[in-house]
Amino acid sequence: MRPLLHIEAGARTDLGRVRKNNEDCYSIDPSLQLYVLSDGMGGEAHGEVASQLAVQTILTHCRQAENSRTTPIFGEASPDVSERTNRLASAIHLANRKVFEAAASDPEQEGMGATIVAVWIEGQKLSLAHVGDSRAYLLRAGTMDQLTADHSLVAEKVRVGILTPQEADASELQSVLTRAVGTNNTVEVDTDEQVLLVGDFVLLCSDGLTRMVTDPEIASTLLTSASAQESADRLVDLANENGGVDNVSVIVLHVVEKSEGLLQKLKIWKRHSG
Amino acid sequence: MSRLVLKFESSSLKEVPLGTRPVTIGRAPDNDIQIDNLAVSNYHARVYVEAGSLVVEDLNSLNGSFLNDIRVERAMLKDGDSILIGKHEIQVDQAHDAVLPEDGLRKAPAPRVNETMILDTQERRKLLEMAAAAGERSQLSPERLRVPTLTVASGRTDQKEYRIAGKLTVIGHSKMATVRLRGWFTPEVAAQINKHEDGYYLGRGDRVPKINGVSIQGLTKLNDGDVIEVGRVRLNFLYRE
C-alpha cells in the first residue's frame, strides 16, 4: 500500500538585526501544496517590490494552470521533467518577465530583482525550481542534502574548480548573484524532482539563514521541534542570535503519514470501485 | 516593523509588512493578502494606518470580518489582535519591533558588499569564459557523450537493463519507478537517482543503498562502473556508447 502523505508546513520571515527593510517574502498555498520563497534585491524598498511581485505571480500562474489546461507555458518545457515541474518553471519565467517589465517602466526601480526557490507537491512527488542563492534542503533519515546549486559568483567558481569551499565561505563576494529573477528579459531556471517519504523534512530558506546557522544546527533544529511552525520560528531565532546580518526567511515542510479517516477510506474505496 | 501574519490552522502562510499603504485582503489575485477560498469576498477587508492607529475595515463583505471573534465593520487594532476572515486568521504583530537591537546597531549601515547584487555584464562574461574553459576539459571525459544505463547483475526486476532518462529515476515497487523491483516486502521507493549538472547522484529511499559495498551517506555521485546494491538487487551503473 502506498502511504498517504500529509505535509505539515511552517514558515517565518524576519528583518534580522541589521537591515532596515525586509526584502524577503514567502507565500504558501496549502490547497495547491505550493510553497514559494524569495529574497529581493535593489536599493531602497525596491527589493521588496521585486520579491513580492515574483511570489504573487508564481502563485497566480499556478492557480490558473490548475483551473485551466490551456494556460500558456512560458519559457521552454523540458522533456526531462514532469508537466508539473515544467509548470513551476513556467511560473518563474512569467515572474521574471513581470519584474523585468516593472523595473523597465520605472527608472527608480531599475535593476531590482529577486531570488526564487519554489516547491510544488503532488502525491509523493516533489517538483522544485529555483533561481539565485535561496536554497532547498532535504533532511532524510538523519542526513541533510542541499538540493539546489547556488547561482552565485563564489558557488559557480567552486563548481568549476577555481575556488575551494573554504575560500568561498570567507569571500566578500558572497552576495554577488549570477542569475536572478527580473534583472534580464529572460532567465534560466533550474529544476529538480524528488520522491517524498514519510519522515522527510524539506527546508526552503534565504541566505540570511545559511550564512548565520550551520547545517548541523539546522538539522538538529528540524529534528527536535514539536511542529514545522516551531522549527521555522526556532531557525529564525537562531539566525538572529548568531548576528542576523541579513533578512531571514524559512519554510519548513514535514512529511507525515496521513491518518486515514472513514471519509478518506470511503473515497479510496469509491475511486477503486468506480 | 509591524506586520500582518496570515494563518491557517496555526501555520503561517504569508507575512505582509505594514507600511504607509493600506493592505488589502480578499479572494482576487491583486490583493496584498489573497485568500483563495469561496467564503472570502473578492475585496473583503483592508488594514491601514489612520492618525497613528492601525484600523481594520470590512469592505461590505458577504461573510464578514471578525476581530477577536466579534463581527466588525471598522475597528482599531492593537498588537496581538486576531482578524478572522472565513477560516483564515490574520494576526497583528507589532511586538516584532521590540526584537530589534538598540539604535547603535541599527544605524550602522549594512556593509555595501553584503547587499545582494547581480553580476555585471563584464564580470559575467569573464566567468562564462572560465566556465567554458573548464567545460572543455570535462568534455574530454567520455561520460558526457554516453548514455547512462543500469544493468541488472542479480535480483528480481522487470527488465534486465534500463536507460536513464530524465531528472528523476526511482528504484522500487512503486508504479512511478523506472526500475521496478519485484517480490514481497519490497519498498515502494527503495532508492532514487537524480540528474545534476555534473552527473548522476544516488540517494536513499526506504532503503540505504550501497555503492561498491559501502552504504551511502546522503546523495552520492555515481561513477562509471559502480555497483549499486538495493536490498537483494545489484545494478551496474555504466555509461554506454
Structural class designation of chain A: alpha+beta
**Sequence of strands across the biggest β-sheet of chain B:** 2-1-11-10-7-8
- The portion of residues assigned to helices of chain B is 10-25%
- Encode the helix/strand succession of chain A as letters: EEEHHEEEEEHHEEEHHHEH
What is the CA-CA span between the terminal residues of chain A?
Answer: 19 Å
Backbone shape of chain B: elongated
Find the count of extended strands of chain B (DSSP E, 2+ residues).
23
Q: Given the structure, what is the number of helices of chain B?
A: 2
- What is the H/E string of chain B? EEEEEEEEEEEHEHEEEEEEEEEEE
Largest β sheet strand count, sense and barrel closure of chain B: 6 strands, antiparallel
The biggest beta sheet of chain A is recorded as: 6 strands, antiparallel
Oligomer: heterodimer
Which range best describes the helical content of chain A: under 10%, 10-25%, 25-40%, 40-55%, 55-70% or over 70%? 25-40%
Considering the chains and any ligands shown, give keywords for the structure.
heterodimer; A: alpha+beta; five-stranded antiparallel β-sheet; B: 241 residues; mainly beta; six-stranded antiparallel β-sheet; 2 helices; elongated
